[in-house]
Specification:
12 helices; binds FE3-S4 cluster; five-stranded mixed barrel; binds iron/sulfur cluster; OB fold (Dihydrolipoamide Acetyltransferase, E2P); binds S-adenosyl-L-homocysteine; 440 residues; pyruvate-formate lyase- activating enzyme; six-stranded parallel β-sheet; Rossmann fold; 21 strands
Length: 440
């Protein structure tokens, strides 16, 4: 970038889901490939990329407050680019509301970020929210360095159209990246230091492709191929939809030793009328039967989910069904949200919106139940011996933090380094983490 006003340093800040985190990493790699250097704090950066999330109203409002906060004391601002799902959904509105934003780029177009930044540095404002059918991935630089635990987007977009959700509109139709590209990127991540790879997709288990021999395969086949990478120790995937949980993937939990015993499988509600109004293609009963099959393949599997309370029309009795399914499953961890009406989604125009104070009360009761189960799951792990993938140093000298196979945070003190897989005995459990002792 030759222009005298070209930014030299950048900072990418990602909000929302893990796929946005992945996209943020790829944007940083793109900018670095242009010769720009990352700034530690966004206050120091010439270019700030806000990689945004549109999933709930609060997430969206954050963008505007963040833009305001980037104004410096002397009244100037860094060059601001808004990327991610708010850029896709509200690009024009952002340009109108926030004159300091110079670039708006959607999640399927960010491979164009460097040229758009160059245009902005030359004085233009640039917007790109097309969803080209050809993959942006081909235009991204090769991956070089990675932490011990890396993300790999294998599938993007969503065709499910749950009535509350913006993702089908912000991320577009379901697409699967080709098998060979994914195997290559996984190998680069492992060469760059990754011991664990989490395969990402809005409906990751809808991934479909052809293996090296041209045979049709699903996520189980991809995971089997990745398991053959010698220095890759762990494979995870998220987020799954109950409708795409096929027999091969369930079986893989019993046969692929590198596939970790953890499954994030959102149910959203425990009531069939609400599930139908949400356009979820499962019932409470079919979901529970599915979990039985998963547990038959991998008895120690840790389960996780997402819940929405206060979907339009949800009655007290219908909410009780959600508490009932929580009791029946015993989640190891879960996320729960108050329903947030999103512009353009069918649920936003449904009748009988649930009052805020009712939603608050339901969320509190649900979270109390989920916290109870999370603590119970952690307590039941005490006495287990497992490997912990060391991700970073702890607060105390000689202390390390990492993850158990069941995705619990574990801390222990001993001889280790980041990226090690250490055998530990789990000796003490809290609500959010466990203490371990190196085995032997
Ligand atoms: N593709 C994933 C993740 C979707 S977004 C999936 O289908 O599971 C993550 C979670 O946000 C959803 O599972 C849902 O629980 C929640 N969510 C989505 N839209 C929402 C809305 N309008 N209000 C409240 N929560 C919402
Ligand atoms: Fe949204 Fe439903 Fe698609 Fe998940 S499956 S991204 S909740 S529309
Ligand atoms: Fe948010 Fe977009 Fe992810 S709306 S949850 S960043 S797909």
């Amino acid at each position: 970038m030759a222009s005298p006003t070209s930014p030299r340093t950048f900072h990418v800040k990602s909000f929302g889901c893990q796929m946005n985190v992945y996209d943020g990493e790829r944007m940083a790699e793109l900018l670095a490939a242009q010769g720009m250097t990352p700034a530690d704090a966004r206050d120091d950066a010439d270019l700030v990329v806000l990689n945004t999330c549109h999933i709930r109203e609060k997430a969206t409002e954050k963008v505007y407050s963040d833009i305001g906060r980037l104004r410096r004391e002397d009244g100037s601002s860094p060059l601001i680019a808004v990327a991610g799902c708010v850029a896709q959904a509200e690009g024009e509105e952002i340009m109108a509301r926030a004159p300091s934003v110079r670039v708006v780029v959607g999640p399927q177009a960010y491979h164009r970020l460097p040229e758009m930044v160059a245009e902005a540095a030359a004085g233009k404002r640039a917007t790109e929210t097309d969803m080209p059918a050809e993959a942006k991935f081909a235009a991204l630089p090769r991956r070089r360095r990675s932490g011990p635990s890396a993300f790999l987007t294998v599938q993007e977009g969503c065709d499910k159209f749950c009535t509350y959700c913006v993702v089908p509109y912000t991320r577009g139709a379901e697409i699967s990246r080709p098998f060979a590209d994914l195997v290559e990127e996984a190998k680069l991540l492992v060469e760059g230091g990754a011991r664990e790879i989490t395969l990402l997709g809005q409906n990751v288990n809808a991934w479909a492709g052809e293996d090296a021999k041209g045979r049709a395969t699903g996520l189980a086949g991809l995971a089997a191929e990745l398991a053959a990478i010698p220095d890759l120790a762990r494979i995870r995937y998220t987020t799954s939809h109950p409708a795409d949980m096929d027999e091969a993937l369930i079986a893989a939990h019993g046969t692929n030793a590198k596939l970790m015993p953890f499954l994030h499988l959102p149910v959203q509600s425990g009531n069939d009328r609400v599930l139908k109004a949400m356009n979820r293609s499962h019932t409470a009963e079919s979901y529970l039967r599915l979990l039985e099959r998963v547990r038959a393949a991998r008895p120690d599997i840790a389960l996780s989910g997402d819940f929405i309370v206060g979907f339009p029309g949800e009655t007290d009795a219908e909410f009780e069904d959600t508490l009932r399914i929580v009791d029946a499953v015993g989640y190891a961890q879960a996320f729960s949200f108050k329903y947030s009406p999103r512009p353009g989604t069918p649920a936003a125009t449904m009748e009988d919106h649930v009052p805020a104070e009712v939603m608050d009360e339901r969320l509190q009761r649900l979270q109390a139940a989920l916290n109870r189960d999370q603590l119970a799951f952690n307590r039941a792990s005490v006495g287990r011996r497992c490997t912990v993938l060391v991700e970073r140093r702890g607060k105390h000298p000689g202390q390390w933090l990492g993850k158990s196979p069941w995705l619990q945070s574990v801390h222990f003190t001993g001889d280790a380094a980041i990226g090690d897989l250490v055998e530990v005995d789990l000796v003490e459990a809290g609500p959010n983490s466990l203490a371990g002792q190196p085995a032997g």
